[in-house]
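> call design_seq(struct)
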């Protein structure tokens, strides 16, 4: 093992650049998938005719496909029909689609967990269905969703490593490039990558626990 050579200034900068891109792709995907997931999950909860069934079918299809396949489809197949997002864009689109499907199920389950008596009481007090959903049901459901949502966000951050297959220069891609310089760099470089992933995911876990404690 050659820690000194592996952790040269150039190698660490290259590794850190990949880490920053990982965080950027993950952050954008988290925001987009959260927004889409809430929308889809809420629409499914309302059981709108046709719309709810179509969304349910799409969610089930996406949830049962490997994320790697979705990445390949976004990057290699869509350009064949004139839709080209580029490497970074393809990774974000694929992650967003996959994670939005997962989050929509969390949202739907959270909404279904709210006591029906509260909904009936809100409706009897004069609130419309939409007002009840926005003011009563959704806020309570979101508090209950915090643990599974953070867990899903952590999974998303780790899943960005799959984008190395389309040569996205994220953390694992750059770690593999540095490792290729010498077999003695393998353990030091992957250890550094592991520490970077751990630190961010651990911070997210702490934030989730504190948010959950505040809501208790």
């Amino acid at each position: 093992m050659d820690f000194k050579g592996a952790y040269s200034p150039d190698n660490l900068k290259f590794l850190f650049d990949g880490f920053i891109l990982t965080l950027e792709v993950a952050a954008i995907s988290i925001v987009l998938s959260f927004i889409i997931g809430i929308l889809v999950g809420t629409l499914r909860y309302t059981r709108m005719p046709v719309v709810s069934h179509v969304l349910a079918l799409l969610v089930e299809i996406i949830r049962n496909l490997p994320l790697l396949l979705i990445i390949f489809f976004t990057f290699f197949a869509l350009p064949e029909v004139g839709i080209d997002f580029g490497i970074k864009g393809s990774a974000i689109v694929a992650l967003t689609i996959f994670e939005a499907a997962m989050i929509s199920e969390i949202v739907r389950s959270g909404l279904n967990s709210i006591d029906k008596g509260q909904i009936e009481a809100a409706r009897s007090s004069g609130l419309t269905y939409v007002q009840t959903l926005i003011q009563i049901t959704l806020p309570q459901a979101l508090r209950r969703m915090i643990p599974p949502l953070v867990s899903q966000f952590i999974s998303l951050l780790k899943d960005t490593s799959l984008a190395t297959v389309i040569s996205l220069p994220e953390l694992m891609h750059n770690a593999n490039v540095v490792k290729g310089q010498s077999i003695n760099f393998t353990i030091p470089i992957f250890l550094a990558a592991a520490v970077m992933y751990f630190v961010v995911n651990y911070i997210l876990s702490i934030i989730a626990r504190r948010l959950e404690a505040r809501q208790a």
